[in-house]
Write a structure and sequence with these properties.
This protein is an alpha+beta fold and 375 residues long. The protein contains nine helices and twelve strands. It is 36% helix and 14% strand.
Length: 375
């Protein structure tokens, strides 16, 4: 390998040099010796070359179809919650897997297409290069640009319109799939696929007919209905409860009430001494029943279940990002990233049965979701 430094061309000579000349000069200036620089397809138009081109195009096409598929799934696939064992369950439950499968296939298609193109059409030269210190001179910059352009030229991308078009289509569709995340919410009507147009504006605690909605204990058995009365909780303890209406005492409605994400409520029986010092939220002064307070279990930060109640400090804790809510101050956040209080459910006791019931739905947003906001 020669290590002699070639003579630098003048500006005028540089301007006159062809791309081939610049490539050779660049290699020399960098102390690079091109040991092998074979043309991947020395005989043009062979069957093998066409087969390779079609293979690359096929992967870009797969990427394009999958990218458009992702957009289609995102915009049109039904995505509302449907209880297991009910009609259409399979279709609804496939929404998320279909999003993953289509976007994944699109990214994979672009990746494999690019890899195959590089493997089949970009020259695989063998070069030996001397390393040197310092920044690049103007000559170096121009020659490296020429080398890159030459590599593109030798890979024959300019005349492979099938590959260029399918690569553009595949990458474009994949980009569209990624972009739909940002724009989809502006296009897709979030109410269109819910059972009732306004179901995102209330929780399962709202009684559509005015029938009483009782507090049902979470026993682990979806078919077992155990209502809660004031004698059921020890002081300083909590109970997770869900809505129950007598007219909905069937398998589907019972399961659904347990699974609706904004239904879980934490019923707290405070110690009498603590209950006496509770500061109540404005407009919610009568939402409690004696020492009993009911708050949503859905954290106002990102919606994790706020399942921990520390009896000694009267704090409700969210395990996800350590937000803490003070039960002595209407469950307002006092630590962590949450900025809104936990929604409080107004409760009372049914005179006839002695069980707790919800006097109405929540009157404020539950959890962090935008769609739950009422104003
Ligand atoms: S979801 Fe509760 S603190 Fe983040």
């Amino acid at each position: 390998m020669s290590t002699d430094k070639p003579e630098l061309p003048t500006d005028a000579e540089l301007a006159e040099m062809s791309r081939d000349d610049l490539v050779k000069l660049g290699a020399k200036l960098d102390g690079v010796e091109l040991v092998e620089y074979p043309d991947p397809w020395p005989v043009k138009g062979t069957r093998a070359e066409k087969r390779a081109e079609r293979l690359v195009a096929l992967w870009f096409l797969i990427a394009a179809i999958a990218g458009f598929g992702f957009v289609g799934v995102f915009l049109f696939w039904p995505s509302a919650y449907v209880a297991p064992n009910t009609e259409g369950y399979l279709m609804y439950s496939l929404f998320t897997p279909m999003l993953g499968a289509t976007l994944g296939l699109s990214v994979l298609g672009v990746g494999i297409g690019a890899l195959l193109y590089t493997k089949k059409f970009v020259p695989h030269e063998v070069a030996v290069q001397q390393r040197h210190d310092g920044g690049s001179s103007e000559v170096d910059k121009q020659t490296i640009l020429a080398e890159l352009a030459d590599a593109g030229n030798r890979s024959t991308i300019a005349r492979r319109s099938l590959i260029k078009r399918t690569a553009g289509l595949g990458a474009g569709a994949m980009g569209l799939g990624v972009g739909v995340f940002a724009l989809g919410g502006l296009v897709r009507d979030p109410w269109a696929q819910t059972e009732s147009k306004d179901s995102l504006w209330h929780t399962g605690w709202m009684s559509p007919t005015g029938e009483r909605t009782f507090l049902r204990r979470a026993t682990g058995n979806p078919h077992e209905v155990v209502l809660v009365s004031p004698n059921d909780l020890d002081t300083g303890s909590i109970e997770t409860v869900f809505p129950f209406r007598k007219s909905e005492d069937d398998h589907e409605a019972l399961s659904k009430a347990l699974k609706r994400s904004d239904n879980p409520v934490m019923l707290i029986r405070m110690r009498p001494a603590d209950a006496a010092q509770v500061v109540k939220a404005q407009g919610q002064e009568d939402f409690n029943y004696g020492d009993y307070y009911a708050y949503t279990k859905i954290c106002s930060h990102l919606g994790c279940p706020t399942s921990l109640y520390e009896q000694r400090t009267n704090r409700i804790l969210c395990p996800c990002h350590q937000s803490q809510f003070d039960a002595l101050q209407y469950a307002k956040p006092i630590f962590g990233p949450a900025t809104r209080k936990l929604a409080q459910l107004p409760i009372a006791v049914d005179e006839e049965t002695g069980y707790f019931y919800a006097r109405s739905d929540f009157i404020e947003p539950v959890g962090p979701a935008f769609w739950e906001r009422r104003s």
